[in-house]
Design brief:
The protein is of the alpha+beta class. It is built from nine helices and 14 strands. It folds into three domains: 159 residues, no CATH class; 141 residues, no CATH class; 60 residues, no CATH class. The chain is 42% helix and 16% strand.
Length: 396
C-alpha cells in the first residue's frame, strides 16, 4: 500500500464520511448476519444473496439509497474476502467496525481514476463526491483500485493497493533465518539484532498523562474530544514509524539474501500458548512483554507479506516449533538450554548465544522440529492469533 494524504474540501469531507458510514453499516450487517448463522442453522447466505439483500435494503432506506451503490457493494465484497482470509488462516475473524475507528471504503473498477494535476498534486475520483485532491509525495503506482480511509486523528488518506516491485536477488546463494523475538523485533542468523522503533520514553510518558486525563474528563465534553485527538495523533505517528521500519528491513533482506527463511507464526503461537509464558517476574513486566508481543505480532504479518512481495519465491516459512530450545551448533534439544529469556546456553556442548539469534540459526537451517522430536510440520494450525492488540494500539 502506498498511502497519500488526501485533501478534501470541507464539503467533500462530509461526503466521504457518509461513504464511510454506509460502508460500515453494510459491513456490520454482514458481520451480524454471519455470527447469527451457526452450523445448526444451515448455510450462511452467499455473497450473491447478500447483494440481493442490499438491493432490498436500499429500496427500504432512503439514506442508504442516497449513497453510492458501488461503494456499498464493494463493502460486501471486502467482507467476503475477509471471511475467505479468515478461513485461509491468514487473518482474524472479521469483526464489527466502530464509528471513528479506522474507517474507510474502497473504490474499484471504472470508478477508480487518478489524474495528475501538476508536479505536486494529483486527484482521484470518488463516486458522488467527485475529484478529491491529494499531495504527491512519491510516484503514484498504476491504479486499479484504491481505499479511502480516515484515521483516528481525523486525517484522510488514499491508499493504492500496489504490490511492491520485486527486488533482484544478490545471486550469492546465501540463506538467512529471521526470528521474531520478544526483546528485539527481528534477530537474524547472521547475528544482527534489528529493533523496530517503539514509542520514545517521552511519548510514552505523554501518552500515560493524557490517558489519565481522559479518564477524568467528562463524557461528550470538548476537552475529552481534544484529548482523544491528541492520543490518536501520537499513536498514528507511532504506527507510521513501524510501517516504515517494515519497508526498510524487508527491502534490505530481499537485496542481501537469496533465500529468506521465517518462522511459521501460526505454529509458533500454538507452542507458545501451550508452554505458557517464559517470563515470570512481576505484573508490570508481563504486561509490557504482552504489549510488545502484540505490536510485533501485528508487524510480523506485514513484514512477511512484504518479504514475499519483494522476494517472490525466495521466502520459506519454516514450521519452527522448539527452535528456541534447540542448540544451533550440536542439535541438542532441552528445555534447560534456555538460560534466560535473552541467553541460550546448550547443556550438551556449552554453546552460548543470544537466544533469538540461536533460534534464527535453526530457522536458517530449515530445521522443523516437532514436539515429538521428529521433523515435519505439526498438525493443528491455529487459525486465530493468540494475542490481540490492546485496544489503544492501532495495527501496523
Ligand atoms: Zn549444543
Amino acid at each position: 500500500m502506498s498511502r497519500y494524504r488526501l485533501s478534501p474540501t470541507p464539503g467533500q469531507g462530509v461526503g466521504l464520511e457518509e461513504h464511510c458510514g454506509h460502508a460500515r453499516y453494510v459491513w456490520n450487517l454482514a458481520v451480524e448476519q454471519r455470527s447469527w448463522w451457526t452450523r445448526y442453522r444451515g448455510k450462511p447466505p452467499t455473497h450473491l444473496e447478500r447483494c440481493r439483500q442490499l438491493t432490498d435494503a436500499r429500496a427500504g432506506f432512503d439514506w442508504l439509497k442516497a449513497g453510492s451503490q458501488t461503494i456499498q457493494q464493494q463493502a460486501l465484497r471486502d467482507f467476503d474476502q475477509a471471511v475467505r482470509n479468515f478461513f485461509g488462516g491468514s487473518h482474524r475473524r472479521p469483526t464489527f467496525r466502530k464509528r471513528g475507528q479506522s474507517e474507510g471504503f474502497q473504490v474499484v473498477g471504472k470508478n477508480a481514476r487518478v489524474e495528475k494535476l501538476n508536479r505536486r498534486w494529483s486527484r482521484c475520483w470518488v463516486p458522488k463526491t467527485g475529484w478529491v485532491k491529494f499531495r504527491v509525495s512519491r510516484k503514484v503506482p498504476d491504479v486499479r483500485s484504491y481505499r479511502v480511509t480516515r484515521d483516528r486523528a481525523g486525517r484522510w488518506h488514499v491508499a493504492f493497493a500496489a504490490v511492491p516491485m520485486p527486488v533482484d536477488p544478490p545471486g550469492t546463494g546465501e540463506v538467512v533465518g529471521v526470528d521474531r523475538g520478544v526483546a528485539v523485533s527481528a534477530a537474524l542468523s547472521t547475528g544482527e539484532l534489528r529493533t523496530c522503533p517503539g514509542p520514545l520514553p517521552t511519548e510514552t510518558e505523554r501518552l500515560h498523562r493524557w490517558q489519565r486525563r481522559l479518564a477524568r474528563a467528562t463524557r461528550g465534553s470538548n476537552r475529552r474530544g481534544r484529548i482523544q485527538g491528541r492520543i490518536a495523533r501520537l499513536k498514528a505517528r507511532e504506527a507510521d514509524r513501524r510501517k516504515d521500519w517494515v519497508e526498510t528491513i524487508s527491502t534490505d533482506l530481499a537485496r542481501r539474501f537469496d533465500v529468506i527463511r521465517v518462522e511459521d507464526l501460526r505454529v509458533k503461537n500454538m507452542t507458545r500458548s501451550a508452554r505458557g509464558t517464559v517470563e515470570k517476574p512481576g505484573k508490570q513486566v508481563r504486561q509490557k512483554a504482552g504489549l510488545n508481543r502484540a505490536i510485533l505480532a501485528n508487524g510480523w504479518g506485514l513484514f512477511v507479506r512484504r518479504l514475499e512481495q519483494k522476494a517472490p519465491g525466495r521466502v520459506e516459512r519454516i514450521p519452527a516449533a522448539l527452535t528456541s530450545q534447540r542448540c544451533s551448533t550440536c542439535g541438542q534439544v532441552a528445555s534447560g538450554n534456555r538460560e534466560s529469556q535473552a541467553v541460550f546456553r546448550c547443556v550438551a556442548c556449552g554453546h552460548t548465544a543470544n537466544a533469538d539469534v540461536n533460534a534464527a540459526r535453526n530457522i536458517a537451517a530449515g530445521r522443523a522440529v516437532t514436539a515429538r522430536g521428529g521433523t515435519g510440520s505439526p498438525e493443528p494450525v491455529n487459525r486465530e492469533p493468540q494475542h490481540r492488540a490492546p485496544p489503544h494500539l492501532t495495527g501496523v
